[in-house]
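User: Hey, my collaborator sent me this sequence without any context and asked if I could get a structure. I don't really work with proteins. Can you help?
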Amino acid sequence: EVQLVESGGGLVQPGGSLRLSCAASGFTFDDYAMSWVRQAPGKGLEWVSVITWNGGSTYYAESMEGRFTISRDNAKNTLYLQMNSLKSDDTAVYYCNTGGSWGQGTPVTVSS
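Assistant: No problem. I've predicted the 3D structure and written it out in structure-token form, which is a compact way to encode the shape of the chain:
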């Protein structure tokens, strides 16, 4: 059974940083690209970033470019999202995703 468990969310002030993690199990982690997707309150899903199976290539939504960094540790079956210079617009539930599998999400609130 595929399991994705996100963690690391919380309340942070504008301009602050957070590092999200996604622990994966139930599949061969390093066979798959992994993504982060978010959902702001009252809005639809928004793609954030994707990383290839070996971490060799990464891509970001325009509004996250230069502020967010996606990475992975295949030895630990874990995906990360380092978020810097956070803005109130980044407030959302963040999900990791591969194929049709989703975690439960971790909430991020950016507020003073």
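In plain terms: The radius of gyration is 13 Å. You can pass these tokens on to your collaborator as they are.
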